[in-house]
Structure prediction request, 385 residues.
Amino acid sequence: MIYLDHNATTCPAPEVIAEMVDVLQRVWGNPSSTHGPGQAARRALVDARARVAAFLGCQVAELVFTSGATEANHMAVLGALAAARGTARRRLVLSAVEHPGLLALGRRLAGEGVPLDLIPVDAQGRLDFAAAKELIGDDVALVSVMGANNETGVLMPIAELAELAHTHGARLHVDATQLAGKSALNFAASGADLMSVSAHKLAGPKGVGALAVRKGLALPPLLSGRQERQRRGGTENLPGIVGFAAAAERAAATLARDLAHMRFLREHLEQGLQRVLPASHVYGQEAARLPNTVCLRFGTLDAEQVLNKLERAGMLASSGAACSAGGTQPSHVLLAMGESAERAKAAVRFSLGPDNTADEIGRVIAVAARVIGPLLIDQTAALAA
Ligand code: PMP
Prediction:
């Protein structure tokens, strides 16, 4: 099997699993308990928090562990709106290409009366900054924009957005889920007030993530309770949090090498596919992108057909976001980039990981030429007939 769907999720690393099993077996106490097992769990939690904070470039007191990025995103948006309640700041501004979960939250809130605006993107998937300037005013409570898009890998201008938001007294939340492990994260230097991440995108476990909350920012909790300095109730998911710490440490240790390796393989894949299948169109090719992601279509061949062929050859990629795979809806990201529904449904995403090899990429290119090439010829013939 050649796994090229790392933006959907990753296989947990052996050292992550080893640390988690150790915690499950040995450190099973409740970190809130005052007895021995509880205090051992507390120490493991403190240690894991320091490791994840170092990875994110935030202070330990700024880190709130959550059940993943979806929860962190909800905490950021609902918390920032709640914090601004009673003031003239009521507006929520998102980008049009946010993760489906965040957009669904935005639409739900809009239905409840929260004024919502979506910042458009251009044909390359880049944020329309001129539009952002028009939309972000003194009535905005929160601007929430992802660090990198999960489907195209296109990067968003976080530092500029932070400056813009702060000029108007608004907060900036960054969903950095796809940046983690694919770019050096530095919450302190980013300018963001809030930042979401998820462990399972960087060889950590599913069901654990974090929200970094800028020191001094009073953010009402989503889940009430005593844990996480009253910011997130519920007994801590210690095995998951320790697994997250192991994954973060591992990713940081090899980051520079991994980024160069993935970028090299991505270029190899992208150029190879364009060479053997000239009808390939790469999305966001002119934009600054994550080093591991290539989103493209082969003419207008339906993505499902392409993915089936690849999977039969043992190669796993995805159509747009995994969250919408199986559905027949075209990707909202590609529609926002101005693609037609027909073309958007042809989009296939390859997302690489540090363990992919040049040999694997060579095999993917060869198989694509063999199995997709004839489909393209058939389609061209059918269109000409
Ligand atoms: N935001 C982005 C940009 C994502 O790619 C994902 C994962 N698909 C999420 C949020 C949700 O993360 P989680 O699975 O941890 O809830």
